[in-house]
Specification:
By secondary structure, this protein is α+β, with helices and mostly antiparallel strands. It is built from five helices and eight strands, in the order E-E-H-H-H-E-E-E-H-E-H-E-E. The strands form two sheets. The chain has a five-stranded antiparallel β-sheet, sandwiched between helices. A three-stranded antiparallel β-sheet has the order 6-8-7, covered by helices on one side.
């Protein structure tokens, strides 16, 4: 079960059905859905969002830490900004992926980086020795987020979700934000 994680500006907490309208603003948005792995169509309406949240809440109740799904909420005004997750990647369910999804209006606020750092700390506190991020090609914002958190490019792969993705890896020692950044993938559009 996802535990409550608190950062300077954010609370990462368990989803509730009451979050459906705000969640629909994120997961019903085509600009968010286009970057999700696995590929996911935008959630079409409030009824579908409630069903999806019920599924996530049920899965989360059975999850063994550090696995889980979190609602990302801003502390200053309690606004739901999006979601985050630590989930096992198929096939094999051996690699642990950190994921985050924010409303596009909030992409520039470094909330994703703050949420991802909290997830990484949570995972490493539970004796995880490496964490991955699966990034769709050309998703420059996601690349910036993973690099801000010390992740290094591990290559391009089609191992996950049947699509070609960029794979980034983080180990506990990589959480040092003062360490130099790792190399970018070849032909990267990010500076």
């Amino acid at each position: 079960m996802a535990r409550r994680l608190v950062t300077d500006r954010l609370i990462l907490r368990t989803w509730s059905i009451e979050d459906a309208e705000a969640a629909l603003g994120v997961y019903g948005n085509a600009e968010v859905a286009r970057w999700l792995s696995p590929v996911m169509e935008p959630v079409p309406d409030l009824v579908a969002m409630r069903l999806l949240l019920r599924q996530w809440i049920a899965e989360d109740a059975r999850a063994i830490p550090p696995l889980g799904r979190w609602c990302i909420q801003r502390r200053e005004d309690d606004r739901v900004l999006g979601g985050a997750s630590l989930l096992l990647l198929p096939p094999g369910n051996q690699d642990l992926e950190a994921g985050w999804h924010l409303h596009p209006d909030l992409w520039a606020g470094s909330y994703a980086s703050e949420a991802m750092f909290a997830l990484a700390r949570w995972a490493f506190d539970h004796e995880v020795d490496e964490l991955f991020a699966v990034v769709r090609p050309d998703n420059a914002r996601a690349v910036e987020t993973v690099r801000d958190n010390g992740m290094e490019w591990a290559g391009q792969t089609d191992k996950y979700f049947g699509q070609s993705v960029e794979l980034y890896r983080l180990r506990p020692a990589d959480l040092d934000r003062s360490a130099p950044r790792a190399d970018l993938p070849p032909n990267s559009t990010t500076q």
